[in-house]
Amino acid sequence: MIIEVERLRKEFNGVVAVDGISFSVERGEIFGFLGPNGAGKTTTINILTTLLAPTSGTARIAGYDVVKQPEQVRRRIGLVPQEVVLEGDLTARENLIFHGMLYGLSRQQIESRISELLDIVELEDRAESKVRTFSGGMKRRLELVKVLLHEPEVVFLDEPTVGLDPQTRRRIWEYIRTLNTERGVTVFLTTHYMEEAEQLCDRVCIIDHGRILDIDQPDRLKHRLGEGEMVEIELAERCEEFVRSLGEAGYRIKSATGCRVTVVAERSERVLAEVFSLADRLGTGIVSISIRKPTLEDVFIHYTGRSIRDEAAGDTRIREIARRLKH
Ligand SMILES: Nc1ncnc2c1ncn2[C@@H]1O[C@H](COP(=O)(O)OP(=O)(O)OP(=O)(O)O)[C@@H](O)[C@H]1O
Ligand SMILES: [Mg+2]
Questions:
Q1: How far apart are CA 50 and CA 284, in angstroms?
Q2: Mutation pick for ligand 1 pocket among 8, 10, 43 (CB with most ligand atoms within 8 Å)
Q3: 235 and 112 in one domain?
Q4: Are 264 and 117 in the same domain?
Q5: How far apart are CA 23 and CA 31, in angstroms?
Q6: What pairing do the DSSP bridges indicate for beta strands 154-158 and 77-80?
């Protein structure tokens, strides 16, 4: 195990940011921490990268304790933090040189790697441009290869694609896969994008309020919800009665916010028939119906009763009814 974490806890003046988490990551894995804002993702990364001392518990990287052997740890890791930390007035090449020198590499060692690294992220032709002229995606790409200069065994990526357009996001995923498969780098990343966790990670740890809700391969997490499809229904009115009736009819309601209800069903056509006849009986219109496969978002809702995206959204009253019906 290249990362070993045991009962790790971090408190900030009485606020528990990380609440006694334990997990481990195998060498060569792409491991993702998936959770909403404030879940404790950055705090965990900061502890694992020796930037922050834990309140209690232990963490080891490649066998070295992050508190007792920080130098040994730092030599083996690379960190791409949530905020960009490039020097805008330096060129791409100068930024890499600067970073390499911080790690004690010789000028020659650095120069010999620069073009190869810039090539990975397709920035070779911008090597002599000042970084402040770069787009957000270009900066992110430069940061990604910057951490490879000192040939780390593990890289920590804190929200690697936040704020980027879908196309740039996909390219960054490709680069992350490349560092993992071609260079054998273990990747620990945090994200609040379900799709990112699903597409990229070998295993995902779902975290909320500083606690681990579950850890597994994305497919296996989804199978926890049971075999079947998600039927999403949006109603025009009489939503509360509708949800209650569906529940009483024995359907597994996964979530209900406002007039949107999600039901898990092995045979979605049976649900559809029931939905239409129920709407008819209540005299309400159906705004939309869709059928889809479960996602990690559904897994998160399953554990927390709320969406990872919009904490505050939704009608709590209906959600409460749905919760009671589930139990
Ligand atoms: N330096 C600090 N002082 C006080 N509280 C902090 C500090 N850093 C983090 N926290 C608190 O710890 C909790 C977890 O924060 P953290 O930054 O780890 O969350 P996160 O999962 O990275 O969220 P985001 O997705 O918004 O980046 C939050 O409640 C936050 O307010
Ligand atoms: Mg964060």
A1: 57
A2: 43
A3: no
A4: no
A5: 11
A6: parallel
Residue 203 and residue 251 share a domain: no
In the chain, how many H helices and how many E strands? 12, 14
Q: What is the mean pLDDT of each run of 10 residues along the chain (327 residues)?
A: 98 96 98 94 97 98 98 94 89 94 90 90 94 92 90 95 88 92 94 92 96 96 83 90 89 85 85 90 91 88 78 46 59
Choosing from 182, 205, 222, the residue where a domain stops is: 222
**Domain identity same for 68 and 163:** yes
Ligand 1-lining residues (CB < 6 angstroms): 12, 15, 17, 35, 37-43, 82, 192
Q: Give all strands of the β-sheet with 252-257 in edge-to-edge order.
A: 252-257, 260-265, 229-235, 286-292
Q: Which ligand is nearest to the CA of 51?
A: 1
SS3 68: coil
Structure tokens at 55: 């309140």
- Find the CATH number of the domain harbouring 96: 3.40.50.300
Q: Which atom of ligand 1 is nearest to the CA of 10?
A: 12
Task: Find the domain containing 301 and state its range.
Answer: 225-326
| Residues 209, 229 share a domain | no
What number of other Cβ atoms are within 10 A of residue 227's Cβ? 9
How many domains does one find in the chain?
2
